[in-house]
Fold:
Amino acid sequence: MKSSKFLVGLLLFSMAANAQTKRPLSPSDIYRLQHPSSPQVSPDGNWVLYELRSPDSTKDRFTKDLWMTSWDGKEQVQLTYEPSGESNARWSPDGKYISFTAKRGEDKYSQIYLLNTKGGEAKKLTNIKGGIGDYEWSPSGDRIVMTISDPDYADSASTKIRKPYVISRYHFKQDYQGYLDSTATHLYIFDLATKKLDTLTKGIYSETQPAFSPDGKRIAFTSNRTAVPDNNENTDIYVMDAKPGAAAVKLTTWSGEDFRPVWSPDGQTIAYLQSSSDEPFTMYGHPLLAVIPSSGGDKKILSAALDRPLRNIHWSKDGRTIVGLMEDDRQVQLVSFDAVTGMNARLTSGDHSFYDLEPNTAKNSWITVMSTAHQPAEIFAVEGGEPRRLTQIQDSFLAPLVLPKVEGFKSKSKDGTIVSGILYTPHDAVAGKKLPLMIFIHGGPVAQDEFDFDMTRMVYASAGYAVAAVNYRGSSGRGISYIRAIYGDWGNREVMDIIGVANHLVAAGIVDENRMGLAGWSYGGISTNYTIATDSRFKAAVSGAGSSLQLSMYGSDQYITQYEKELGVPWKNKDKWLALSYPFFKADKIKTPTLFMASQSDFNVPVIGAEQMYQAFKSLNIPTGLIIYPNQNHGISVPSYLKDRFQRHIYWFDKYLK
Structure:
């Protein structure tokens, strides 16, 4: 018999050997990371349907398939294998079918398909000329309400040469959608037995987010029916009978956004989200939870006292509470509200983020997608406030890796503001040895960096950098006043906060003041430009999908409503526009070598923003480069481009910081 000392030694040797075989995260790991989303619980509560997005390295694209996991997590079943992918998966009310939208074969538009849960191929349910968006089963399972976009006939010429864009709208372009014509999106109801499609709404206005009442007799939906919907975000909640020719009754009157209606179990009340701002462009605020009688009456705001953004709201089975996801200072938690008094209670705690939320009424529990700093997203059940993991999607991804260290921190800006951040450092970082710094700035600006698995910052930390995430003023999760601190004053307080993070990490002895850099995408790229024009200590920068000459963005991007409200029209408020363009006009004062990146088809922050700064740097002989990703929108969707972006960041910072 082997001695205990021998067995202990063998175990230690095995552990050491295993540690040596593990490696840091690399850019090519983008080809191995999968993304579960949109969990849906079966009516009997025993199965969870979800979508799994996976990279296809051969075809250099992402695909999406449908999977199921049993409620105990012991069984995992892949349902679809089509390369074209599936979305918007739903259970039929009797649990016999799974519906989803997809383009298969000769489909020009996405159609609804039905998959029998007993097996077999999915069958096409609809054959509709127009894009199907939101849809929902009736409680009895005999009908489906859906939104359908008017078909675009402009690209159907026999010569295959697209007809000219004929534009008359105030808001005439949108990322991913392109140039906008006068088509609308309307509600339709589909009878499964007769295959008959009836029109519920028509006209110049669009309707979205339809939801059946519990008895199936009425439909709630969201619509902007102001005189010129293009120049404001004033959506309201409407209710109508679920039959053609019925009149729509407007329930809400807030001049901001009212959206995402959810019926109470008894059908007497509708919960929904309301923007905290009533301005034409409501970005500088966050969603509040509200309730209103479904027959009309006074609304009640339930979450105002929390001063935190809510999303993914659902009624409890008994109709007494409403549960949703709440952002709060780098975390996302489940929180419940008494539907009458508004009293709230946090149902979960800890450094994690939830992305989705659906009730399992049969089990009196919740299903969600959860991630932590060292755990990529998995499907979890939440029972009694405790998450229980159901899937093991990421085990093979994590198996060969040794991940960076992650910890939260708080810094103080020059004006005394306390700013929350997250620091990523190499797994083998030596205490007391100063590291080169990369501050990677999130976009938005109304968003937050949180304790989830951040592939981008993990890759850069694995390359040997201290990487800081900073929730500068303008970020969400800290209250409305914190968000609105940068309103009409870009490049000031958020830059102060970014510089404050650098000062904090230098003073803590973590980073080398002579080897600091900046990077970011979208508003992160814009903030990068502002910061290098303010502080010359940064020795390298990568500005992605950013802009500096803000005056040139008027009419060339999608934010016309925001600009005219927040900044005023340029011909009346020229000085404001020029002041916010200071990185371009101070280009000759910038010393930081900067790589500029952009997406060719981006209507969110058009490529001109990067091109202008690149041209200025070339004219001034400041080290620079310009990378443009072909046929990409604001978000990069090609795996090889994502890998390329990682590699170019590392190369650029290695060149100037190492």
Remarks:
- Residues 402-657 form a domain with the Rossmann fold fold (CATH 3.40.50.1820).
